[in-house]
Amino acid sequence: MLVVVAPGQGAQSPGFLTPWLDVPGVRERLEWLSVVSGIDLVEHGTTSDADTIKDTAVAQPLIVGAGLVSLLSLFPHPSTAYSAIGAGAGHSVGEITAAVGAGVLTAEQAMVFVRERGSAMADAAARTATGMSAVLGGDADAVVTACDAVGLTAANINGAGQIVVAGTQTQLAAFADNPPEGCRVRPLEVAGAFHTEHMAPAVGHLDKLSNAITT
């Protein structure tokens, strides 16, 4: 069984798509998905700087678009790719990439939806200075307790030894100043406190769109 696991925000880096443009068909597919999404994926994946692609309105379509073209490049024809995938999973926005692989969404539906998701979440993130930090090591219960004490949300449990906490920059600074024993705190290059109440302003718009999509 072929299983596809698609990454979320933070997977992108300046120029990460440059080598992929040498793969037959990749540039053309990126250009098509750029037209669909209204975002220049080729430019952002090859020449845009770190601050530009950190913007969640850019990062989300870029990551999903990159995932789709890399997936399709593994097979001689798109229909072969989708029929060959037995299971898919995605981390955060990677769920949209995985949904295409599973045949739940078309690539075009995914790019329109992720454009709207990124834009709505960027608007939500702009309302308050927020962010996320990875907490490495330590006792998981102690991390969650310390997180709660300063008003942060334990947004992601990425596995043994890594919990991502999210909230305002003030809350993150307070946590970093007094971390639980045995922990390292690493700020993440993301635009806001995703997977928290700070994204609530984006929910209504995305709920309407997700309910309207037909396949």
Précis, in short:
The chain has 215 residues and is an alpha+beta fold.
Give the class-level CATH name of the largest domain.
Answer: Alpha Beta
Q: Describe the biggest sheet?
A: 4 strands, antiparallel
* Number of H- or I-type helical stretches: 10
Radius of gyration using CA atoms only: 18 Å
CATH fold topology of the largest domain: Malonyl-Coenzyme A Acyl Carrier Protein, domain 2
Coarse morphology: globular
Overall mean pLDDT score?
93
Structural class, judged by helices and strands? alpha+beta
Supply the number of structural domains: 2
Any guess at the CATH architecture of the largest domain?
Answer: 3-Layer(aba) Sandwich
Please count the beta strands (DSSP E, at least 2 residues each): 6
Q: Strands of the biggest beta sheet: in what spatial order?
A: 4-5-3-6
SSE succession: EHHHHHEHHEHEEHEH
Percentage of residues assigned to helices: 40-55%
Low-confidence stretches: none
Strand percentage lies at 15-25%
- How far do the termini sit from each other? 24 Å
Give the name of the CATH superfamily of the largest domain. Answer: Malonyl-Coenzyme A Acyl Carrier Protein, domain 2
Would you mind describing this structure in some detail?
It is built from ten helices and six strands; from the N terminus they run E-H-H-H-H-H-E-H-H-E-H-E-E-H-E-H. The two termini are 24 Å apart. Helix content is 48%, strand content 18%. Helix 4 (56-72) packs parallel to helix 6 (94-101), helix 4 packs antiparallel against helix 7 and helix 7 runs antiparallel to helix 10. The protein folds into two domains: 2-125, Malonyl-Coenzyme A Acyl Carrier Protein, domain 2 (3-Layer(aba) Sandwich), CATH 3.40.366.10; 130-198, Malonyl-CoA ACP transacylase, ACP-binding (Alpha-Beta Plaits), CATH 3.30.70.250. The radius of gyration is 18 Å and the shape is globular. The chain has 215 residues and is α+β, with helices and mostly antiparallel strands. It has a four-stranded antiparallel beta sheet with strand order 4-5-3-6. The protein has a two-stranded parallel ribbon with strand order 1-2. The relative contact order is 0.15. A hairpin with a 2-residue loop joins strand 4 (153-159) and strand 5 (162-168).
